[in-house]
Amino acid sequence: RKSLNLSTKPSILIVCEGENTEKSYFDQFRVSSAVIKSVGTGFNTCSLVNRAKKIADVEEYNQVWCVFDKDEFSNYSFNKAVHNAEKLGYGVAYSNQAFEYWLILHLDDHQGSMMNRENYKDKINELLKPFGIEFDADGRKIVKEDLFDILNGIDHKSKKKRVDLAIERAEKIYNCLDHRNPATEESST
Questions:
Q1: pLDDT digits (tens, 9 = 90+) for 115-151
Q2: Quick check: helix, strand or coil at residue 53?
Q3: How close are the terminal C-alpha atoms of the chain, in Å?
């Protein structure tokens, strides 16, 4: 049975494939205008959408988001997960190939060419050198506070928040694609 959410703030459920990177990124946000619950499941594609539905069936949320990667999953499974989530009225935040591509877009305008997920960590660390920090030095792929502060900080060249730049860059890529087969739309998020 669903429990009634008495909060006047909108409630948002974010169900993430990753138990570390995605969840740690979303957990860093301090939002006073909404109640956000992020869950790192370890589930992928269709099983993640099913898990989101199970959680949303227990407690009511104003928005439900499914966050998952293309990874090495079949095109069919990936596209079916996108379709199933949208059919349920959930937001879908996918990354093709992996969530770390979203992190790259905070720091670099990487537009349109394919970048294999094996190169993401090196690219992120190259972009972080001027800040004197390293991503995934301990092998846990967690977005720690120092990294989040950079990703959410101001880009000195454009004078914009880096997260806003990431959104602009992701939208520019996304708007160049037709979305008939999201599994083949690499690199995008």
A1: 888 889 999 999 999 999 999 999 899 999 999 999 9
A2: helix
A3: 34
Q: What's the rounded Cα separation, in Å, for the pair 105 and 162?
A: 8
Q: Is 94 helix (H, G, I), strand (E, B) or coil?
A: strand
The answer to whether the bond into 187 is cis (omega within 30° of 0) is: yes
Buried b (16+ CB within 10 A) or exposed e, 141-162: bbbeeebbebbbeeeeeeeeeb
Cα gap 69→188, rounded to integer Å = 10
Q: CB within 8 A of 137, min separation 6: which ones?
A: none
The pairing of strands 35-40 and 63-69 is: unpaired
Integer Cα distance of 187 and 174 in angstroms: 10
In what side-by-side order are the strands of the sheet with 91-95? 35-40, 11-16, 63-69, 91-95
This prediction's pTM? 0.89
Residue 10 in contact with residue 62, Cβ under 8 Å? yes
Which position has the token pair 């806003």? 164
